[in-house]
Amino acid sequence: MNFEPTEEQRLLRESARSALVGLCTMPVLRKGFDDPAKLDAFAQALWASVAELGWTGLVVPEEHGGMGLGATEFAILHEELGRALFTGPYTVTAVLAAGLLQLAGCPASLRARLTDIASGAMRLALLEVQSGERESFFATCGHGGTVSLGTHRVPDAGVATHFLLLATEQVTSSHAGVGRLGMCLVDRSASGVTVESRESFDPTHTMGSVTLRDAPLDPGHFHVTELPAAQIARVLGDMRLARCSEMLGVADRALSETVAYVKERKQFGQPVGSFQAVKHKLADAYIALENSRTAARYAALARDAGAADALLALDVAEAMTSVMGIRVTGDCIQAHGGMGFTWESDMHLYFKRARWLASTGRGVGHARASIASAIVEGRVEF
Amino acid sequence: MNFEPTEEQRLLRESARSALVGLCTMPVLRKGFDDPAKLDAFAQALWASVAELGWTGLVVPEEHGGMGLGATEFAILHEELGRALFTGPYTVTAVLAAGLLQLAGCPASLRARLTDIASGAMRLALLEVQSGERESFFATCGHGGTVSLGTHRVPDAGVATHFLLLATEQVTSSHAGVGRLGMCLVDRSASGVTVESRESFDPTHTMGSVTLRDAPLDPGHFHVTELPAAQIARVLGDMRLARCSEMLGVADRALSETVAYVKERKQFGQPVGSFQAVKHKLADAYIALENSRTAARYAALARDAGAADALLALDVAEAMTSVMGIRVTGDCIQAHGGMGFTWESDMHLYFKRARWLASTGRGVGHARASIASAIVEGRVEF
Amino acid sequence: MNPSFSAAEEAFRQEARIWLIESLRSVGYDAMSWRERLDTDFCMRWERHMGASGWTGLSWPKEYGGRALPLVQQVIFQEEYARAEAPILWNSMAHGILAPTLMYYGTESQKKRFLPGILSNEERWCQGYSEPGAGSDLAALATRAERISDARGDRYVVTGQKVWTSVAQFAHWCFILVRSDPKSSRHKGISFLLLDMKSRGVTVRPLRQMTGESEFNEVFFDGVEVPVENRVGEEGQGWEIAMTAANHERGTFFVPMLVSMQSELRDLVKLARTTPSDGRPAIEDPLIQDKLAQLYMDVSVMRLNSYRTLETLMQGRPPGPEASFTKLFWSEVRQRMLELAMDILGPQAMLAWTDPQAAAGGRWQREHLWSRAITILAATSEIHRNIIAERGLGMPR
Amino acid sequence: MNPSFSAAEEAFRQEARIWLIESLRSVGYDAMSWRERLDTDFCMRWERHMGASGWTGLSWPKEYGGRALPLVQQVIFQEEYARAEAPILWNSMAHGILAPTLMYYGTESQKKRFLPGILSNEERWCQGYSEPGAGSDLAALATRAERISDARGDRYVVTGQKVWTSVAQFAHWCFILVRSDPKSSRHKGISFLLLDMKSRGVTVRPLRQMTGESEFNEVFFDGVEVPVENRVGEEGQGWEIAMTAANHERGTFFVPMLVSMQSELRDLVKLARTTPSDGRPAIEDPLIQDKLAQLYMDVSVMRLNSYRTLETLMQGRPPGPEASFTKLFWSEVRQRMLELAMDILGPQAMLAWTDPQAAAGGRWQREHLWSRAITILAATSEIHRNIIAERGLGMPR
User: Fold this and answer.
1) Which chains does B contact via 3+ CB–CB distances below 8 A?
2) CB-based contact (8 Å) between D3 and chain B?
3) Do B282 and D315 touch (CB under 8 A)?
4) What fold is seen in the domain B124-228?
C-alpha cells in the first residue's frame, strides 16, 4: 500500500515543478522552434541547471556522485519534465545509460563514467543498432577499435556530448532466457562522426541524422556481455517507464490548461465548459489520465519492489499511457475550438510531444501483444 | 443510380408495414414468451397470412406460383419484418430454400417444391451439417435412403413442416473456385425425427433441439452437386443479406421509439432528449443506422446487378449492420433509463433480436476478416 | 497486480480466507451450481450465518457490536469474500448506507432498536429513494408524508410510490425519502424515515426486468403510518442525510465488484480457450486476444485504483469524484466484457440463460443482459460523467 | 463500390477525364512532388486555366455563362477531378457559396459585375463570417457596419475583426456578414456585404496553424467603406442569406473530399505494405488489417451515401441533415485514418513533414496535423451532432 508518494517524493515533485517553471518556459522553447541550433543551445544551458539540482545523478549510486534513487523517483521527475515539455536527452542519459552502466559485468572503466553522468558533464543520445548491423557491432564491442554505422535518426543528437550505441538480442528463446547486450560510447567530436540536423515532428526536441564511419572507440568504453534477459529488459524497461511518466505529465498539463480555457471561453452566452458534450469529453479524458497514472505508478512500484509482474505492469502502463496521451491531447485541441490548432496555442505542442513519446518506443501494438501473449500462455494472475 | 426504391418497391414497403402492424403485434407476441407452443401456433397462423399476401413466394419464379422478385425486394421486406419482430422461419424458407431450389443442377422433383414454398404449404427450418458429419451427409445426398444427425439447435424448429439439411464445402481452394453442395428435405413428422423445445435468447423466436436417427429422405428430395463457389456463396449470401436488412428494421424501430420517449420523458424539469449527452448518443445511433442502411441497400443492388463486388459489399453490410444493431439497441435501452431494462418495455426485445441476428451467421469477425483479406490480397478497388 | 500488505494484514487475510472456505464448504457451496448459488433463501440464510459468526460489522465501532477493524482489513475481507465467490449479500443497503447513517444521525433509541438487527442480518432493509418521476433527478421526488398529531400519537402518513426497490419483497424495513413539507420543492422539505414494511397500506409489486427475473419492485404507500420517532435527523434534513450516506462507503463499496470482475475475466479467458470459432479455439483469434488484453488492462487498473482511493481515505484527504469514477468505469468495462463473452459464444448465445443446456449454466447470457442495467442504476453514466466533470475538474454546472 | 451510370453519363466522365489528364500533363503535373502541387501560385494559375477552358460553372445557368449540367454530371466531374488528384481550388468559396447566393439574392448589376470574375477565377473571394467571439456561435458576431449617407454617397463603414479567413491574403474580394443594426442581437440586424479587399482600412494578418503553415488569416476592418449597392439582399437579411447559402452545395460539395479519401486510403494500404514493423510489413499485423477493413467500410459507405443524397436531391425531396452527417462522419473517419498512418509510420513519424527526408514527402504527418482542424472548422463535431439530433431526429433544442 504505497501509491501515494512519500514525503521525500512529494518534495522532489514540488521542487521539480517550481524549478522547471523558471527553467523551461514556453517563450524560450518557442524561440528555438525555427532554429535547431538555438534549441540545442537552450537544452545545453538547461542541462547545466538540472545537473546543479542533482537530477542528472538521480539514479546514479552515491559513490559515483549521484542520489541513488529508484524508479518511483525518476517516474515522478519525468511527470514534471513532461509538464514542462523539457528538452534534451535526459531520459537516455540519466535513466537508460545510468542503468546500463550499473549492470553486472560492466567494466570499471565504463562504469566510472557514471560520475560524468551525475555531474552533468556527459549528455548521451541513443543509437539503437538494428538487426542488419548487429553482429559486426557485437564483435566491435568485444575488442574495440573503430565502429561504422549507417545513418540513424537520433533525437537530441545536437545536444549530446557522446553517443550511446546499443544492441541487444535474445540468446535463448524462452521467456526467462538469456540475452546479449553490446554497448559503447562514441565521442561526438571524434573523427568519422557526422551529425546533420533534421526537422523534428516535436518542435521541442531537435533531431539529427548521425552517421559513423570508422569512428574510434575510447579504450574501456565498450562492452559486450550475456545476462539474464530479464535484467536487460528491466534496464530497457526503465526508459519505457520514464516515457510513460513523461506522457502523464504532458497530458495532465494539457488537460488542466484546457479545463481553465473552457471555463472562461463563452459561446451562446455561456462558458463552453458548461456544455455537456465538452464536460463528458473532458470527464473521459480525466478517467483515461487517472487510469494511466495508476498504471504507471504501479509499474514503478513493481519495478522498485522487484515484483514478478513488473514487466507485465510496464506493458500495461505503456499501452495505456500511449493511447491516453495521444487521445487526451487531441481532445484538448478539440475542446479549444479554432484556437486549438493555431501555432500560438500550446495545445499542439502537447499533442506533438505525445506522439513523439509514443513513437520512440516499440509502440503500443507491441505492448498490447505482449499482454495478450501473457494471457494466452497463462502467465497472468487473476 | 438507384438507391431510392422504385414505385413498386415503395408500395411493397408500405403494404408490408401496414399489414404487419395488424398481423404481428407486441401483445400477441408477448403472450407466447413463456409458452413456446403458443408462440409456434402464432407463427403458424402468421405464416398463413403472409402466404396469402404472396410474401412466401417473393423470390420464387412465377412459373412456380411466386412473384419472381429479387434481392432489393426481399431486403425491403426484411426491414419491415425486423420492425415488427416477425416470428417464424421466413428467411430460411422464402430466401435460402427458395434460392437453393433454383440453383443449376437441382433435380426437377426437388425444384417442384418451390410451389409449396410459394403457396405457404411448406415451412423450413435449417440444419447446417458441420464438418464432422459432412462426408457421410454428402454420400446420403447422393443416393437417398435415411439420414442420421447429432443434435442441432434449430431456431423456429417448432413451426417447421420440414427441415432443410444443408452442407457446403470448398472443393478447389482458390477464391474463384468450385464448391460442393449437399442438401435434402426431411419431413418434420418422419420417423426418427425428434424435436425438443429449448428456450431462446430472443423470446420472439422459438428454438428446438433437433435429432435425426435414420430419418427417411423422400425420393427426389436430396441432391448433391458441384458448382462455381461464387454461385453457392451468392445463395448463402442471400440469407445473410436478409438478416442485415432485418437488423436495419429492428434498429430503426428501436431508435424511433426511443426518440419519441426522450421527447416526452422529463427529468430536471426538461425533456431528457434536450440533454446534449442524449442528443449526441442518438445522433451517433442515427449515423450508424443510416450508414448501415446504405451498405445493406448497396449490397442488394450489387447482388441484383451481378456486380463483381457483390460479395465484398455483403461483407461490408454484414459487418456494419451487426455491430450497429447491437450498439443502437443497447443505446436505446440506455436512453430509456430505468424503464429500458424492464420486461415491460419493448427495448429488450429489439436488443435480443439484434443479438440473435448477429449470432445466426458466421459472425462479424468473419466478415471483417474477409474484407481485410480482400485488401491485403489487392482485391478491392479504391 | 497486487500491492504489498503488512504481515498483520496478511495474517488477517489468511484468517478470513480460512473462515470463508470452511463455512462455505459446510453449507455445500462447492457442489452448488452457479444458479443454485443465486437462490434467495440460501443467500439470506448465509447472511444470517455471517451475522451469527461475527463476520459482519467489521467497520462498526465496538460499542455497537462491531469489530472496529482498520479500513485495510475491511477491504481485505471484501476481497477475500469476492475471491471466494461467496453469496450475494441482500442486506447490503442496510450495512452500507443505513447503519453509518444511524450511527451519525440516529437517536440512541434508534441505534439500540435497529443496529443489532442489521448486524445479525435478522432484519433486512430496502432503500426507498427512486420514484417513477424521480430517477436521475432524485430531488424531484413526490412521495408525501403528512404529519399528524392526535390522541393516537405523533406520526407521518406516507402516500406515494417508489420504484427500482430491490429486495423489497423480502425486506422487513424500508429507509425512505419523503417530502414532509408539501409546499417545498427540490432538495428542501425532504425527510428520512424508517418504515415498517408490515405496515398497513404497503403494497409490493415485483418489476420484471429484461433477464426475466424480478429483483426490483414497485412499492406503493397508501396512507402508511410512521411514528415520528422513526424519523432520522430533523424534519427537512433528509436530502443532507441521503447525500452524506452516499459517501460513506466510497472507499470500499466497490472492492468486491472489482475482485469479482477479475474472476469473471479469468472465466472469460477460459471460455475463449474452450469455445470454437471457425474450427479453432476463439482465443487463437488475434482480435479476441487484443480485446482480452484491453480488458486485462482495465480490470487491473481498476483494482489498483481502489488501492489508490483507499490510501487517500486513510490519509484523511478529501475524496474526489472516485465513487463516480469507479462506478462509471466499472459498469462500462463490464458491459464491454460481457459483450465480448456473447461474441465468443457465437451461435451458442442464441440459447436463453434459463435453458438447462445453456453454456456455463447460462451465466454469460444472464450477466450480459444484467449488464445493461448497471450503466443506469445508481445514477446513469451520463450523471456520473457530469459529476466527474464538475467535482473532479471543477467545470461549471 | 460503384453504382451504375447511364451511357451518356459515362461518356461525359470520359470527356472530363481526358481533359483533366491532358491539361494536367501539359502543366507538368505528373512530375511534380506532393509538395510542389500545394504551391499557391501554381494552384491559382491552374484555376484560371480551368475558367478559361470552360470547366467552371458546370452548374450555372447558361445565361450567366455556365454549362447548366445536370447534377449527376456535376458530381461525375468532381469525382474525376478528385481521382486525378488535381490541384486544390482556392476560389471554391466563391463558386460554392457566393455565386448561387448572387444568382438568388443579387441585383442584376451585382450579377453582371461579379459572376464573370468568379467564372474565370480572375477574381478570388474569401468568406468573412467567423470572429474571435463568434465561432460555433456565429450569431454572436460583432463586426459593425454603420450606414452613412452624405455627399460622397450612400455607404457602410465596417469596423471589426474576422478570423479563420482562408485565402484572405490572395483574395480580391470578401463576402462578409456584419451587424448593420447596432441595437440588434443574435440573428437579427445582420447584413451580407461584398467588400473590396483593396479598400483602405483592411489589414490581413496570417494566422499560423499547427502544421507550421499559414492558410488562415485574421482580417481587421478599420472604417472600411462599402457602397450600399454592394449589399446583397435587404438590410438585416444577412442571416437568412448565409443560412440559405450554406445549403446550396449540400449535395455535391463533399464528393471530391470523399473521392480523395478513397485515394488516401489506397495510399495508406501501400504505406502499410512498405513500412516494416517488428521486421515484417505492417500490413501483416492482423490488428492493422482490421483497422484498414474498418476504414474501407467507412470510406465505401461514405461514397455510397453521397449517391443516396444525390438521388434525394434529384427527386426534389427535402434534404435532411445530410450536410452535417457527411461533414461529421468524413472528418472523424479521416482523423482516425491519419492516426493509423502515424501508428504505421512508427519511429518515422518523429520527423517533421517539412523535413526533406520525411516518408512520402511528409504527407502523412502534415495531413495528420491538418486533420485536427477538420473536426473544428465549418462547425465543430459537437455542433453537427446537435444539428443531426435536432433536424434528423426532431429532438428538442
Assistant:
1) A, C, D
2) yes
3) no
4) Butyryl-CoA Dehydrogenase, subunit A; domain 2 (2.40.110)
| A267/D285 CB distance under 8 A | no
Q: Is residue C243 part of a domain?
A: no
Give how far A269 is from chain C: nearest CA, Å.
Answer: 13
Whether C65 and C169 map to the same domain: the answer is no
For chain B, the residues whose C-beta falls within 8 A of a C-beta of chain C are: 131, 153, 155, 198-203, 207, 209, 266-268, 275, 277-278, 326, 330, 333-334, 337-338, 340-345, 347-348, 351-352, 355-356, 359-360, 362-366, 368
Query: What is the C-alpha to C-alpha distance for residues B315 and B328, in angstroms, rounded to an integer?
Result: 20
Each residue of C336-359: pLDDT tens digit? 999 999 999 999 999 999 999 999
> Which residues, including other chains, have CB under 8 Å from residue B269's CB and lie 6 or more apart?
none
> In this structure, what CATH number is given to the domain that contains residue C46?
1.10.540.10
Residues of D taking part in catalysis: 249
Query: For chain D, how many structural domains are there in total?
Result: 3
Cβ contact B104:B92 at 8 Å: no
Residues C259 and C206 both lie in one domain: no
Domain spans of chain A, in order of start: 7-119, 124-228, 229-376
Beta-carbon separation of C354 and B268 below 8 A: no
Q: How far is CA B291 from CA B296, C313, D4, in A?
A: 9, 48, 20
Model pLDDT for residues C236-254, shown as the tens digit of each residue: 999 999 988 876 655 567 8
Average pLDDT over chain B reads: 95
Write the CATH number of the domain with boundaries A229-376. Answer: 1.20.140.10
Q: Is residue C223 part of a domain?
A: yes
- Give yes or no: C215 in active site: no
Residues C220 and C285 in one domain: no
pLDDT at C250: 56
| Residues C65 and C133 both lie in one domain | no
State the residue range of the domain holding D218.
125-236
Same domain, D328 and D373: yes
Is A270 touching B (CB cutoff 8 A)?
Answer: no
Is a pLDDT exceeding 90 seen at residue C9? yes
- CA distances, B127 to each of B134, B157, B185, B186 (Å): 12, 10, 10, 10
Task: Give, in order, the Cα–Cα distances in Å from A111 to each of A114, A118, A137, B32, B275.
Answer: 6, 12, 20, 80, 63
C40 SS3 class:
helix
Same domain, D84 and D18: yes
Chain C hits for A2, Cβ within 8 Å? 3-4, 311
Option in D208, D349, D377 nearest A343 (CB): D208
We find that the CATH architecture of domain B7-119 is: Orthogonal Bundle (1.10)
Please tell me whether residues D262 and D381 are part of one structural domain.
yes
User: How far apart, in whole angstroms, are the C-alpha atoms of residue A299 and residue A309?
Assistant: 9
Q: How many residues does chain C have?
A: 397
> B229-376: same fold as B124-228?
no
**Same domain, yes or no: D192 and D264:** no
Q: Which of C64, C89, C114 is the last residue of a domain?
A: C89
- Which three three-digit cell numbers place residue B285? 445511433
CA B310/CA D213 separation, integer angstroms:
44
What DSSP string runs through D76-116?
A: HHHHHHHHTTPPP-TTHHIIIIIHHHHHHH--HHHHHHHHH
Q: Which chains touch A (3 or more CB pairs under 8 A)?
A: B, C, D
* pLDDT per position as a tens digit, D96-149: 999 999 999 999 999 999 999 999 999 999 999 999 999 889 999 999 999 999
CA C96 to chain D, closest CA, distance in angstroms equals 39
pLDDT digits (tens, 9 = 90+) for C296-313: 999 999 999 988 888 888
A→C interface, C-beta within 8 Å: 1-4, 255, 259, 262-263, 270-271, 273-274, 276, 278-280, 282-284, 286-287, 290-291, 294-295, 297-298, 301-302, 305, 309, 312-313, 316, 319-320, 368-369, 371-372, 375-376, 380-382
